[in-house]
Amino acid sequence: MVPGNKPAMRKANLLLPLLLTACGSLPVAPVGPPPPANLAAAATPRAYSAREAVETVVAALSRQAAGGGLARQDLPLRFRASENNAVDWLPQGEAFARQMADIERARRFVIVHNFIISDTITGRRMAGALVAAARRGVRVALTYDTFGTSVYGGGADKIVREMREAGVQVAANSLLKFQRMEHQKIALIDSESGPIYYTGGQGWDDKYSGWGAVPAWNDGAFRVLGDAATQQLCFELWQLAERGVAVVPPGLDGSRAAEHLMRTYFGGGGGSPGRKRVTPLNNLTWDMRPVSDELYRRIDDPGVREIRVAMPYVTDPVALSKLRAAVRRNVSVLFLIPGKSDAEPSQIVTVDAAAGMAREAGPHTAVQVRSWETPETGPAMAHQKFVVFIRSRAGSGRVLDGAVVGGSHNLTAVEGRSGEENNDILVEDAEFAGRMSGLFDRQFQQSAVVPLPGVAMAGIAKIVGTLLRPVM
Fold first, then answer.
1. 436: which of 94, 359, 383, 460 is 20 to 30 A away, CA to CA?
2. Is pLDDT above 60 for 9?
């Protein structure tokens, strides 16, 4: 598909429910948390510190190198918060430029998972950075989603072939193999200070970077350095090994495999690059969904006074129900949604859900909804994905107690119950919550007020939501 081809995009959106259902990518669980409480409790894995995650993954992958198998119950999925992290939010092309600079400095490994690969300026530059790293001896692995690439990207065959020829280990995730969609857009890159972790909403396409002729979407990525990045690296190494990507060279087993893993992936770093409290969150299956669980828990928190939702799609009935309950507790809820969406059905339901919540709450409510636009482009796509939770402020407005959840996860029904794999972070830090709140507020002020939907549009939204909820 040609990037920016709106007729083709609309056709893809209409075909999406049929494709997903036919390919069996969706879980059979109902919308919302799984009903059997004992099953949910049994499925909740332990929470790992960075040290525990490294020990577990090195032992498991060493056993695999010696001919053993991987036991899913030992997968380090849930993590303890760590206090020694540095976190930044990088917008659009700045995120890609910083990521490529980090890749250029890498000497041991680079791991990338992305939903979208395309033969565009952005795709070629990112692929070129991986090729250059592989040619200077860096161990480079890339996995991409064939559905996301074919529908939202395009022309990936050439650059994928070039990466493989240069020594990049490339794996393709496919619905035709009955694999869940890999919706993540992440990178893990070694540095002298330890692994660097990127996560956000950006595919390898010019609309995410603003480098081509296509108008840039409002998007970006979080950059994390510290124990949280080490924890995420453990999760991703396991994911690679489970997909058949060699994280240990052939011929190494037992202690030699463990030595290689420690030297290649965990040999750098140390110290404390920052003071932010960060927890990696990874949705994997319908009963392993820490991102959804954390968002629901934060919305339910009786101490929260303000919630700022920057999301392209808000269709998750569980989250919406909890947000309505928060409004009834007099919580201020602000939505920043797209002014022009790439998915018309989701846009209809999102506008109705957010603006409808304001209508239900009455004229004096603190619920406000605005759609992204710029003076240059007018109404435009907002694709950033984060939610800011504020518990208290000083008289000056400075945030005293707040948190941010953000990454690649959308507030949709299918992602809420983890029909897609996503990676977010939880940052429990007043300064960072204030920074992201300020970013949100600046964007919110320049955006357009969304009118309350009329009865006819609300009715259409309900029909669309009912028909497409299994895949929306």
1. 359
2. no
